[in-house]
């Protein structure tokens, strides 16, 4: 049964929040100040109609908006959207008692996302390829995607055919598509075990369509062209399913901020180094020690360094920084440090950094909540927070990146 609600604010996940006598109700695709009717179920409701629209409401960019679960706030005016994302960082830091210089959001342009994860499933009507509806397992087939690079959108029919060829399961599976300098790199996960005939047919299809690589659950099925990306002009042959920042522009913005902060450091530690997006750029001016738990990513970084010209020394170490963080004594060998952990943050590693004498630290995060926790540890350990820069690379979603810069005077030994 539907009821009338007045939206008080925009929640952290992009849902409108209405206050009622029985608690808050979260209503997707609504905006503060709006009066709406919605069908309530516990603390959530499905929007039925907008009775009084906010002046900040705009037409969404995509026909699949409200169905596809990928975007939450395409209906919000651009400046209000950017302020909402910046405020997510502000509020997270304030919750830990951190107040500092928080810059304006570095914006994300449409049609720039280079890495997209599709869901696929075989149905009676054939393969369905798209994104999962929010709070559901239903796959919404898509025909457009205004956040993605045009080359990915143009390949949707090709990708759908490839999904059909590799499907060996009745369950849904995932297809990660990455734009590289060599073409599209397609990494499929949980599609079932391929038979020999399937492998041959899929391989021939990949070659005929000019794709760079097909892998299934980490195994390379065919690689006509080794997928390569550039980190500061250094070519890196990335392994199947390798983590990359979602947009090239955001990666460069983060690298510029980090690089400037660490420009005086002769020896830099890059923690959670991945394939080297920071390490290989920093190596233009500094010696770098890269620590990373993923062996294929670290091997790609090391191989890229060995074939590059004009870089200072880069050493690499396979190390699970969650189980075995670099100790403060090890860190004292460096005068600069960058860490870019997953969403869980780097609590134990931050405790070791807080005890260290490293004068310049750059903390990169995709989760303002864990960033705030880790910054509190560093500040309590004697670091001064110089600036925080929010960066958008997941357009129209609740996710926001941030780069925090910290300094600590070196102790005299």
UniProtKB/TrEMBL annotation:
Listed binding positions for S-adenosyl-L-methionine are 245, 272, 292, 340
Q: Which GO terms describe its molecular function?
A: 4 iron, 4 sulfur cluster binding; rRNA (uridine-C5-)-methyltransferase activity
Active-site residues, record numbering mapped to chain = 366 (nucleophile), 366
InterPro entries in alphabetical order = MeTrfase_TrmA_AS (IPR030390), NA-bd_OB-fold (IPR012340), SAM-dependent_MTases_sf (IPR029063), U5_MeTrfase_fam (IPR010280)
Q: Which domain of life is it from?
A: Bacteria
Record GO biological process: rRNA base methylation
Report keywords, A-Z. Answer: 4Fe-4S, Iron, Iron-sulfur, Metal-binding, Methyltransferase, S-adenosyl-L-methionine, Transferase
Family per record: Belongs to the class I-like SAM-binding methyltransferase superfamily. RNA M5U methyltransferase family.
PANTHER family reported in the protein's UniProt record: 23S RRNA (URACIL(1939)-C(5))-METHYLTRANSFERASE RLMD (PTHR11061:SF49), RNA M5U METHYLTRANSFERASE (PTHR11061)
Report what the protein is called. Class I SAM-dependent RNA methyltransferase
Question: Which species is this UniProt entry from?
Answer: Mesorhizobium waimense
